[in-house]
Amino acid sequence: MDTIEFLKELSNYNSVSGYEQNLSKYIHNVFQKYTDDITYDKLGSLIAIKNGEKNYQNIKIMLAAHIDEIGLMVTGIAENGSIKFTSVGGVDPRTLVAQEVIIHSEKEIYGVIGTLPPHLQDSDSKDNAFKMEDLYIDIGYDEVKAKELISIGDIITIKREFKVLESNTVTSKSLDDKAGVATLLECVKELKKLKHQADVYNVFTVQEEVGTRGAITSTYKIDPDIGIAIDVGFGKTPELEDADSIKMGKGPAITLGGNIHPQLRKKLIVIAEKYNIPYQTELDPGPTGTDGRSIQISRAGIPTLVISIPLRYMHTSVETINIDDIKNTAKLIARFISEIDSNNLEGYLCY
C-alpha cells in the first residue's frame, strides 16, 4: 500500500484516546499481510509480530507507535441547543475557534465551534485568548432535538480533509502519531528484503495522549530486549530556535537524553552513516513526552530508543509532515534491526 494512501486512511479514522477500536481493526487488516501473528494486550494495544530467523536467545525488539489522537468530549447541552465540551488530551482552545467538527454519537452529527463575535466583546476581552468554557458547538438544533441525538460523553473530532502539499508534504489532523504507524508499515516492508534474527513486535499503542498507558501494558506483556518509540518531534518553523526543533525533509531525529540507551543510540548513528540515511539530533534531557518513557521503566528496565519524525503545528488540525522523513525513518529502523543478533546484542546493551 502506498504511504500517502495509508496515512490518509489512518488520519480519516476517529481514534480519540480510549476509543481506538475501529482504527485497530483497520491496522490489523493491513498488517496481517506483512506479519506472522497478531495479538492484543488487555488495554487494547495491537501487537503485530514479524518473526526473525530462529536463534537461541529469542531476541525481541519492540517498535511502538501510538494510534490515539487528541479530541473533545460532550459535557452538556445548553437551553438553546448548543453543545458544551471538554478536551481529551492536550488540546489548545486557541486552535478550536471556527473549526468544523464531527460528534460521534449513534450517527455522526456535524457542527461548528463558535464563540462570542468580536463586535460584542468588551475592550478588555478582545486581546485575550479564548478558554474552553467560552466555546460551544452549534449543530443547528434546539435543546430537545439535540438531546435526542447526542449524549453526554460522546466523542468529538475535528473535521479536516487530508491534503497533499508541495515537495512530498502532506497535512491533516492526527498525524501525531499516525505518521509513526505509517513508518512501521514501511519498516516491515523493508524487513521483507533483509535477514534479521530478532522477532519484531510492531506495537500500536492506545491512550498515549492521556498518559502513555498502552506502552506500559504492552511492554510488560512483551518484555523486549530493546524498545523503540517512534513518534513526532517539533518541525522547524520561523519562531522556533534550532535547538528546540528539527528540520522537515532532513530525516528522522535520534533523541539524546536520559530516556535513551547510549550504546544503542551510537549504533543507530553508525547505521545511518553506513547506509547514507539522513538523520538529526533531538535533545530531550527529561523522560520525553512519548511512549519511550514508559517502555524504559517497565519491568526491570528496557533499553530504549526514541526516534522522532519532524512535524509542524503539533496538536492542531493542520499537522504537516514530509513523506521522505517517514521512509527514511523506516529504513533506519529496519537496517538497525537487521544488524542486531545473538553475537552482538549483549555488547550493545552494556553501558
Specify the biggest β-sheet.
11 strands, mixed
Distance between the termini: 40 Å
Overall number of structural domains: 2
- How many helices does DSSP assign? 9
In the CATH classification, which architecture of the largest domain applies? 3-Layer(aba) Sandwich
Tell me roughly what share of residues is in helical segments: 25-40%
In the CATH hierarchy, what is the superfamily of the largest domain?
Zn peptidases
Number of β-strand runs: 17
Secondary-structure element order, N to C: HHEEEEEEEEHEEEHEHEEHEHEEHH
- Give Rg in angstroms: 21 Å
In the CATH scheme, the class of the largest domain would be Alpha Beta
Parts with pLDDT < 50 across at least 5 consecutive residues: none
Beta content comes to 25-35%
**CATH fold group of the largest domain:** Aminopeptidase
Query: Judging from the principal axes of the Cα atoms, what is the shape?
Result: globular
Mean of the pLDDT scores? 94
Structural class: alpha+beta
GO molecular function: aminopeptidase activity; metal ion binding
Cofactor: a divalent metal cation
Protein name: M42 family peptidase
Active site: 208
Give the helix/strand layout:
Blueprint: H1 3-12, H2 21-31, E1 37-40, E2 46-50, E3 60-66, E4 71-77, E5 83-88, E6 100-104, E7 108-114, E8 136-138, H3 143-149, E9 155-158, E10 163-164, E11 169-172, H4 175-191, E12 199-205, H5 213-222, E13 226-234, E14 253-256, H6 262-274, E15 280-283, H7 292-296, E16 304-312, E17 319-322, H8 323-338, H9 345-349
Parallel strand pairs: 3-12, 3-13, 13-16, 14-15
Antiparallel strand pairs: 1-2, 2-12, 4-5, 4-9, 6-7, 6-9, 7-8, 10-11, 11-17, 14-16, 16-17
Helix pairs in contact: 1-4, 4-8, 6-8
